[in-house]
Amino acid sequence: MALPAGGHAPLTAVSGGVALCRGVAEAEYALSRADIALYHAKQVSPGRYQVIAPDTRGCGQTVHDGGEITFDRLADDLLALIDALGLDRPLLAGFSEGGITATIAGIRRPDGFRAIVNDAGYDMFNPAAPSFTMMRQMLGGSATATEADPDAFAQMCAQSEQMTAMFELMKADEDGGQGEGHWADYLRLAFHRTTQPTGHTYEDFAKITAPTLILVGDRDEFCTLGEAVVAFGKLPQGELAVLPGTGHVISPGKVATTIDFFARQLREN
């Protein structure tokens, strides 16, 4: 994949992926759920970053060649992409699933990043996290579900205007990438990844040598403040930011906090 030349390249947004961004000061960072996050990033820092936003495995236009898609596999894909693009110690950020993937990449390659932001993606490093039951209920229609139930998911989304809008956006992204009905296949692929422990715990955070920000809203439905403190406490160079009145979303305040954190790391390191 060729990167555009020049100091200011376009911000490209895709759903479900990780975005690799190169700043005009020879800094890169990655931002997950690019379709929303990069819109806000563009408002905060127009023209500063070059963004490469690939769909993750099985999502959007990126096909999956079989087998279970674990977070370790997504982290492998991310590291392979960084290597293929020749990015030197990029800044790395991820939201929710992207935060989990980014953190595992940091665990796997401790010296590979200038700084990392985990935005509401630390809950599943707790093997007893309530999030696993919540995801079984959400994707499978029952707290004891063992596989995804797309019909139950669609019915749940229809119960609120916000969830309906999210569902329609997801369908457009997934079906637009790989054909009608792929949204249901995506749920099936995501179910097992999001309903069982990752194989990594907070103890593994001690392996991350890059400055790392744990970022969360105080109204987050999945990531608790108690877990945030535990995660922060295990990081050798950790920071913790809690945004008031914010749930499990990417907000302008979160993006501004992320960009401020990255800017400080570039100045200080």
Give a brief outline of the structure.
The chain has 9 helices and 7 strands, in the order E-E-H-E-H-E-H-E-H-H-H-H-E-H-E-H.
- The number of helices is 9
- The CATH topology of the largest domain is given as Rossmann fold
Distance between the termini: 29 Å
CATH homology superfamily of the largest domain? Alpha/Beta hydrolase fold, catalytic domain
**What portion of the residues fall into strands of 2 or more residues?**
5-15%
Shape: globular
Radius of gyration over all CA atoms, rounded? 18 Å
Total number of strands: 7
Main structural class: alpha/beta
H/E topology pattern: EEHEHEHEHHHHEHEH
Largest sheet, in brief, is: 7 strands, mixed
- Helicity range of the residues? 40-55%
Q: Which residue ranges are poorly predicted, with pLDDT under 50 across at least 5 consecutive positions?
A: 1-37
Q: How many structurally independent domains? A: 2
User: What top-tier CATH class of the largest domain fits best?
Assistant: Alpha Beta
| CATH hierarchy: architecture of the largest domain | 3-Layer(aba) Sandwich
Please, what is the average pLDDT? Answer: 82
The largest sheet has its strands arranged as 3-1-2-4-5-6-7
